[in-house]
């Protein structure tokens, strides 16, 4: 009986050991496949990447890392997201690979641009499954005249067409937008811009192009951002006002600065570099007048750190971007 118990215990232990080993090997295989995807896609034969049915020469790689940051006595960074953008040397084709920290899926976005650097087509994938297709068209004056979004998962299609005219009374610029949902007109919009091309009014009309749904007007703060939206609903004769906190901030809360740190930057030294930049600019980041802010700290044309508030325990979101130009892409 004692021998039988020992045999049963050994078999039970063997099951758990094998089970744990199997799970461990699955994690190893999964990690290795991600490494092959991220590294091999741009460092295969001839440093190329595949977007759609075509293979392109990689000229530029942009590394991007997003962190949550708590900045008390010391800088504490917690990685939330990371991505790599592979681009041709002329930047007319880009492919972004992103894997959120708490997910196993890899998200891929492919962008195709025309010679004037206007976006023509975007394809979005989750792993190998296409999620979204977006397309744009432009008129002979380089104005966007068509936009389409097709959800590949649900089959729904949103489409917008744009026409342009001038207000005969004051000469202001007007964009006429027709919005369709699965081929059926959904609403019309007239957007008004002054002679400096600043949007000041938007009129939304029903699908009959007659009944006004709402009229929205915009006012701006000294920093050039919207500080208040006023929406009038004719059907109920009601006006609602919505304050936009970012527009109420001083202009100094939205600025770009030289980083002021001359260290040579590589993805492997990014954490130390980010901490140095944030520590050096502590006074700017703790300005009591700036509840909303966006600071961009630059180190030449190939590196930037963008800092915005999260409003959670006075935390910050820190995005680090580093551009790597390959020798063959110069």
Structure report:
18% of the residues lie in helices and 48% in strands. It is built from 4 helices and 20 strands. The protein has an 18-stranded mixed β-sheet. Strands 1-2 form a two-stranded antiparallel sheet. A hairpin with a 5-residue loop joins strand 4 and strand 5.
Based on Cα principal axes, name the global outline. globular
Q: Calculate the terminal CA-CA distance, rounded to whole Å.
A: 77 Å
Counting copies of identical and different chains, the oligomeric state is single chain
Stretches with pLDDT under 50, minimum 5 residues: 1-46
Helix/strand-derived category reads alpha+beta
Number of strands: 20
Please tally the helical runs, counting DSSP H or I stretches of 4 or more residues: 4
Mean of residue pLDDT?
87
- SSE order in H/E notation? HEEEEEEEEEEEEEEEEHEHHEEE
Give the helix level as a range of percent: 10-25%
The largest pleated sheet is described as: 18 strands, mixed
Percent of sequence in beta strands: over 45%
Radius of gyration: 26 Å
Name the features.
330 residues, alpha+beta, 18-stranded mixed sheet, two-stranded antiparallel ribbon, globular, disordered N terminus
Task: Give a short overview.
The chain has helices at 2-40, 245-248, 270-280, 282-285; strands spanning 48-51, 54-57, 60-71, 75-87, 93-98, 107-113, 119-126, 129-138, 144-151, 157-166, 173-181, 184-193, 199-205, 212-220, 226-233, 238-243, 254-258, 294-298, 303-309, 316-325. With 330 residues, the chain is an alpha+beta fold.
């Amino acid at each position: 009986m004692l021998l039988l118990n020992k045999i049963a215990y050994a078999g039970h232990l063997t099951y758990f050991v094998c089970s744990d080993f199997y799970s461990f090997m699955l994690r190893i295989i999964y990690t290795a496949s991600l490494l092959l995807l991220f590294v091999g896609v741009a460092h295969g034969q001839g440093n190329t990447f595949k977007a759609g049915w075509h293979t392109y020469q990689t000229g530029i790689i942009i590394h991007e890392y997003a962190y949550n940051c708590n900045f008390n006595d010391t800088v504490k960074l917690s990685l939330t997201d990371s991505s790599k953008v592979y681009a041709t040397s002329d930047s007319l084709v880009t492919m972004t690979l992103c894997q959120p920290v708490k997910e196993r899926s890899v998200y891929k976005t492919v962008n195709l641009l025309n010679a004037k650097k206007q976006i023509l087509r975007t394809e979005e994938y989750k792993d190998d499954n296409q999620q979204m297709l977006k397309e744009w068209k432009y008129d002979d004056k380089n104005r966007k005249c068509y936009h389409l979004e097709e959800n590949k998962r649900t089959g729904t299609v949103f489409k917008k067409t744009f026409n342009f005219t001038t207000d005969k009374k004051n000469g202001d610029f007007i964009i006429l937008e027709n919005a369709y949902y699965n081929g059926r007109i959904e609403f019309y919009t007239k957007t008004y811009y002054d002679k400096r091309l600043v949007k000041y009014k938007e009129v939304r009309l029903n699908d009959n192009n007659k009944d006004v749904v709402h009229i929205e007007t915009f006012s701006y703060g000294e920093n050039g951002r919207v500080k208040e939206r006023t929406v009038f609903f004719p059907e109920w004769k009601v006006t609602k006002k919505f304050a936009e906190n970012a527009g109420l901030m001083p202009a100094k809360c939205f600025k770009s600065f030289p980083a002021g740190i001359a260290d040579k930057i590589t993805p492997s030294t990014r954490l130390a570099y980010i901490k140095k930049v944030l520590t050096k600019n502590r006074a700017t980041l703790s300005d009591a007048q700036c509840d909303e802010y966006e600071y961009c700290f630059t180190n030449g044309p190939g590196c930037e750190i963008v800092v915005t508030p999260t409003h959670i325990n006075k935390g910050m979101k820190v995005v680090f971007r580093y551009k790597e130009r390959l020798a063959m892409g110069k």
